[in-house]
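Re-running the complex after MR caught last week's input typo. The corrected sequence lines follow. Everything else is unchanged.
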Amino acid sequence: MIIDIHGHTLAPPEVYQFQGRMVGSRGNPFAGFPKISDESIHKQLKKHVGLLQSVGTDLQFISPRPYLAMHSLQPSGMVHKWTEFVNNIIARQVELEPDYFRGVAGLPQSPGEDIRECLPELKRCMEELGFVGVQVNPDPMEGGHPTPPGLGDEYWYPLYEALVELDVPMLVHSAACCSPRESYTLHFINEESIAIMSLLDSNVFEDFPDLKVVVSHTGGAIPFQMGRFRAWRLRAGKENFDTALKKLYFDTCNYSKEALELAFKVIGPDNLLFGTELPGTGSVPNPETGYDFDNLKPVIDSIDFLTEEDRYKVYEGNAKRLYSRLNVTAAQTK
Amino acid sequence: MIIDIHGHTLAPPEVYQFQGRMVGSRGNPFAGFPKISDESIHKQLKKHVGLLQSVGTDLQFISPRPYLAMHSLQPSGMVHKWTEFVNNIIARQVELEPDYFRGVAGLPQSPGEDIRECLPELKRCMEELGFVGVQVNPDPMEGGHPTPPGLGDEYWYPLYEALVELDVPMLVHSAACCSPRESYTLHFINEESIAIMSLLDSNVFEDFPDLKVVVSHTGGAIPFQMGRFRAWRLRAGKENFDTALKKLYFDTCNYSKEALELAFKVIGPDNLLFGTELPGTGSVPNPETGYDFDNLKPVIDSIDFLTEEDRYKVYEGNAKRLYSRLNVTAAQTK
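Corrected-run output:
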């Protein structure tokens, strides 16, 4: 079975019409959620399922499109409404195609706001909507000022407490970026590097040994810059960096084979989960291979030093182990 | 001959005493530069030469320690004084040990200030002090707000014009970082990724085809995240990313062998220059090898797919080709 833990919703155009209108009017007064027909949702969903089938993915976890999360916009009530609305769309998508999708919640994060403000939506998504995971943005300021507390800061502790209690893995994934010199897609990468170093330089895993953190896009720069941080931590008398890194999980959402080979060497198959972001940035044919960049299974299949057991873990085993809320029917496991 | 293009000055303690006092008093009034004896300078220099000898480096380019550049401090006059002072120390170091060192200038960058304010110091270092290169900080705000214009922005054009006119390669290297969640050493990495993408998404190399840019630390995250940016640029109908990347040069200052192997595959030996940052973050024994992380020659020597010609380019040839102000005596070339 192929489980893709990193996908985002393909929502119908009416969803973004609502976003545009709400933001334009600052959601004040809030005019209510529009009705989106099952037909409209299903039209996008058919495309999405077709894409999964074309690459042989059996089940994909989908969350709100991060670059449209608009966490830094004010008033924050707007962000709360938007997040709730998109989570509801995702719940309906999962309900319409339960063989293909599971939900990963977005949170109504707002910079400066107590992170406890996100907990009702987290609980609603887990307990009422049946989601399996949550997406957490380490930079709700979206590249603005002041920079938010690092993920190692106690600011996040009420969230971590809830995640451990609910046994929900968090996918670290930033959103848009307001700095003109940094695209959102590059901001993802930089924020992942910051998130990893902040977490591993903190007491988070001593205080929450059961916290499950999955870092998107194969960990930003860190697997490539291991030597620098190995030396940096050795000089500071800290725990071996390679050992520390194993407290985290990573997805395989990196579109080059050499980089994935490096990731498998540095991170190892126990801590890597299949993730593609399909459809997204990588949905364009790679002239070298003829198939899309985000069609990652043939890439991972072609890494010759991986064993069958390694591949099983990455494609299926690790996801089932981590995501305890994931119920997979016998029919789904071929 | 082994030329290390990425080193920083080992300055005597009196230099940092001066920095502390000047910053404490905001340099207002400015009390003048202290006299630093040749003896004091030579004491540090002897250590530094010993380190180079111990790893077999014949010649190292040294610039001001980036993490102490304090570009974001106000008043900017203080930064101008500090930069001038450190550049002078470097000039004396090169004069005392001309067989081992060449100077790379720091610039008195100040956020919001016209970049032309840096040109007198640039010219002084090149024309009076005989330096061979310059270090440019893409983030003089040092992680603060507002973020500065990306290196692709016309803000930097007067500098690029001067660099082309003087034929001086610039080493992209950020400084300190004011955000508590991001160490300066991680900020280096993130700023390099931003610098690369900003330059390659701009018209800089059309407007300045002869501009020579060397990116520190083997290019931040980019060689590892190539697939993402290949796809991103293909979708936008832009020039092939691998082709675009060849407009830039990179140093080998990355302390893991697997990562350097990836860099050689992605960047190639024509665009990589030997650089170690020795002594610096990597000056601690690697428990795996027994020698320091920043002793990179044995690492590069052990990459089995490199030819003798590749190694010649990386150790010597590319540096001589790029740094036209570098005069190497016959005695230095063994």
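None of the earlier attempt is carried over here. Chain A touches chain B through 56 residues (CB under 8 Å). The mean pLDDT of chain A is 97.
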